[in-house]
């Protein structure tokens, strides 16, 4: 089991929680990142060493309709 430590989102400063994974793929795009800030759509690359983490900006989402509540994640 591999544990990727928690990080701070460089966009909003919120904590990106640690994740446990059996397999850690190399992250080359936002969708590959196991740790992400969904508000900023910033993903942290899957490096175990926080000094080696790169932050990857995802594509912006289209504006959601206002009556659709967003489930927190
Ligand atoms: Zn953020």
Characterization of this structure:
It contains no helices and 7 strands. The protein is mainly β. It has one domain. The strands form 3 sheets. A 3-stranded antiparallel beta sheet has the order 5-6-7, with no helix packed on it. Strand 5 and strand 6 form a beta hairpin. The two termini are 22 Å apart. The model has no long low-confidence stretch (mean pLDDT 91). The protein binds zinc ion.
Descriptive terms for the model:
3-stranded antiparallel sheet; binds zinc ion; mainly beta
Sheet with the most strands?
A: 3 strands, antiparallel
Tell me which ligands are bound: zinc ion
Q: SS-based structural class?
A: mainly beta
* Continuous helix count: 0
Q: Kindly, what is the distance between the CA atoms of the first and last residues, rounded to a whole number of angstroms? A: 22 Å
Task: Please state how the strands of the largest beta sheet are arranged side by side.
Answer: 5-6-7
Write the layout of secondary structure elements.
Elements: E1 2-4, E2 7-8, E3 15-16, E4 19-21, E5 35-37, E6 42-44, E7 55-57
Antiparallel strand pairs: 1-4, 2-3, 5-6, 6-7
The site of zinc ion has 8 residues, from loops.
What's the quick description here?
The chain has 73 residues and is an all-beta fold. The protein has strands spanning 2-4, 7-8, 15-16, 19-21, 35-37, 42-44, 55-57.
